[in-house]
Amino acid sequence: MTAGRNESVLIVGAGCFGISTAYHLLQRGFTNVTVLDRSEQLPAPDAASTDLNKIVRTSYSDIFYAQLARDAIQEWKKTDEWGDTYRESGVLVLGPQGGHPYASKAYENDVALRARTVRFDSAKDRDGSAALRAVFPDDVETGSSFEGAAAYLNLDSGWASAARGVEVLMARVTALGGKVVRGKGVAGLLRDPEEGGRTSGVILADGSSIVARLVVIASGSWTASTFRDLDHLVEKCISTGQTTATIQLTQEEAARYRNVPVVLDFRTGFYVFPPTDDNIIKVGCHDSGVAHHPPENGTYRPVSTPRTVSSHGDDGLRVPRSSIRSLRSSLRGVYPELAEKPFAATRLCWYTESPDSDWMIGFYPSDPGLFVATAGSGHAYKFLPVIGLIVSDALEGRLDPAIARKFAVDRKPSTLDRFDLSRGFLKPGNLGNEPLCTPEDLLPGIGKNDGGA
Description:
Elements: E1 9-12, H1 16-27, E2 33-36, E3 53-56, H2 63-76, H3 79-82, E4 86-87, E5 91-95, H4 101-112, E6 117-121, H5 126-133, E7 150-154, E8 158-161, H6 162-175, E9 179-181, E10 186-192, E11 198-204, E12 209-211, E13 214-217, H7 223-226, H8 231-236, E14 238-248, H9 251-257, E15 262-265, E16 270-272, E17 280-285, E18 290-291, H10 309-312, H11 321-334, E19 345-353, E20 360-363, E21 370-374, H12 384-395, H13 401-407, E22 419-420, E23 424-425, E24 429-430
Parallel strand pairs: 1-2, 1-13, 2-9, 5-15, 13-21, 18-24
Antiparallel strand pairs: 3-8, 4-8, 5-7, 6-7, 10-11, 11-12, 14-17, 14-19, 15-16, 16-17, 20-21, 22-23
Helix pairs in contact: 1-6, 1-12, 2-12
Protein name: FAD dependent oxidoreductase
Organism: Russula earlei
């Protein structure tokens, strides 16, 4: 089941998976590649791949992702192609004394792959604590999160401007002759009864249709809610929203924090970036997030559906009050000074979770006209330059069999079903049961004495 290079390929979704796949197919000589996206504005303002910035790290407990991330970073560093999209600030990984199952293995993999790393043990002696503190500029106050932490700094990692990366690759797709079509939401799939019900295109939300020899589903967190008749996707692609918030710094404040690393605390999931060129700092939490089940019409089973600025206007930017308080409490443990500043904006970043946090890349079972490339599970964007290579190899039947099984759409859940070593058990809350934040919740003081509850 492979696609010919002169056959029409229709990719649903212009995010990380979709646009990278289009680029690499065109690079390989595919001549008829079209990318559809539901959004009139691209990159889509509510896509996970259009968040302010993303961590780019090689620190994975799975050696496959660690190596692939190193390959991606080598591409990111080609400034003639990506400009300053990628910033190698370093990533400081925090874990508990005695080790963390994810962070400890990630460190071993980084060392094995010869990444530039510096290890600290702030609980053993004063020298370890002082060395960890020395990672930060003298005029940046740090908090209690570093006390007693086992940590290491990966100097071969950093962060990327998320929307900028998608824009760069989108321009390359069009330059190579690919088509990127905006404002075309997909409502379902066309089937060809003369070929046993093989997928033969898509039905659009406006009732029109587009025929294609191969359809690639790369619709991210809208996958399950769009393709409800595809059991493997509905059962295995869970849309969850993770809270992020931003802080606007003055030029003077940003100058002091400009050279700090990304801080990623695997004990809590909290992370914080250095300031952007616009002097904005983003904070977030890599956790189970929340699911959103809107009222259902008809007989379809309920599935989690993103609630965003596109579907709910400004109200779609509100996040759970408990999450924003937890973020401020965690921020106080890293940068106490910043915790006394108001949050400028909030957003739920919607992930597509798979049961085991591995991606779903492969042909849909028993349908040679339908291919799936999704389920980023909160860790796809850093691979933007190379993730399309994996998809293209799978699409052409060239992917290593072991990797093909790892990403197979119909793979059986492992014994760690719904367990991610970087986040623990994935049990998202219910957004409908969560009081959402108000403007007052974004002001400093919240979460100072309540432990973030």
